[in-house]
Design goal:
- This protein is of the alpha/beta class and 284 residues long.
- 48% of the residues lie in helices and 12% in strands.
- The protein has a six-stranded mixed beta sheet with strand order 3-2-1-4-5-6, sandwiched between helices.
- The longest helix is centred in the N-terminal third of the chain and has 16 residues, at 9-24.
- The protein is elongated, with a radius of gyration of 21 Å.
Length: 284
């Protein structure tokens, strides 16, 4: 396979998982190359996502690395084909690179979970609400940049509207996000109605945390948990002041799974969340 100039996030993750597999086997890249009958720089390029591998080569690598987890190996195998890149590639050079990686993650996700405090999560935002968010960005965006970000966000939401197997999504929203009048009462009311409409869908679960809860684990932090085809391929995305951060180390995934479970424990049921949203709408 030809060398890649700019690997996608998915290709980088595949290479990283093969590196972890090699390291768990206690092999150096030189030793791995000898076992596989290839050059050491080929091993490095594969692990850096710059060089693809065929399904057959991946299974051979897993065998030499003594990886007995067949489910995990087959999940990695499904990541190997160099298929045509997705719709997000149309936005390369138009939106930040991490957003492309996020869209690719969402496209292949088995399920999604998020928790937010001060705003509605991106996949559930109306166009008007998202437009106001982009207008208030700390680094002022030009009108064309706002339009690119806006259309990109709306296209990301398509995974929730697919007729064939829409992606399951569980979102936990703090009452502060529900009550914040982003864009004014009219925009806020339309956004709340959109949440109610989306919560009617079988694959979408909305839960709220009320002000009465007070402090709780992870309060003030937005967490986006993307479930891969197997737990080892899960990813956590955090919004930082310098941009998006992606985490996938085993210890990090365990930490955020635990944190989300504790957050869910203090959240309202979906039914009581709908009641809260209705109450907030009446207060507008």
């Amino acid at each position: 396979m030809a060398m890649r100039g700019s690997p996608t996030g998915r290709q980088l993750r595949l290479g990283a998982e093969l590196r972890k597999m090699r390291e768990r086997a206690g092999l150096t890249s030189t030793q791995a190359a000898q076992l596989l009958g290839i050059k050491q720089n080929q091993v490095s390029n594969i692990e850096a996502g710059r060089h693809g591998v065929s399904p057959e080569r991946l299974r051979t690598i897993a065998c030499h690395y003594d990886c007995a987890d067949k489910t995990f190996v087959e999940a990695l195998t499904a990541m190997t084909p160099d298929r045509k890149r997705g719709w997000w590639e149309e936005y390369r050079e138009l939106v930040p690179g991490p957003l492309l990686d996020l869209a690719e993650l969402e496209h292949h996700a088995r399920a999604l979970r998020s928790t937010t405090t001060a705003r509605i999560s991106g996949l559930l935002q109306t166009r008007e609400y998202a437009l106001e968010i982009f207008r208030q960005a700390v680094t002022e965006l030009s009108p064309p940049d706002i339009e690119y970000r806006l259309s990109f966000r709306i296209k990301r939401q398509a995974i929730l509207h697919r007729e064939d197997s829409p992606t399951p999504y569980e979102a936990i929203l703090h009452e502060a996000a529900l009550r914040m009048k982003v864009g004014g009462p009219s925009v806020a009311r339309k956004q709340l109605q959109h949440l109610l409409d989306m919560s009617d869908r079988d694959h979408i679960t909305l839960r709220a945390i009320t002000f009465d809860v007070g402090a709780y684990p992870g309060s003030g932090q937005s967490i986006y948990y993307v479930h891969g085809s197997v737990p080892q391929l899960d990813t956590v995305q955090l919004d930082q002041s310098h941009g998006a951060t992606f985490l996938d180390a085993e210890a990090q995934l365990h930490k955020y799974r635990t944190l989300l479970a504790r957050i869910e424990a203090v959240a309202l049921s979906p039914e009581k969340t709908r009641d809260l949203i209705h109450d907030v709408m009446r207060d507008l």
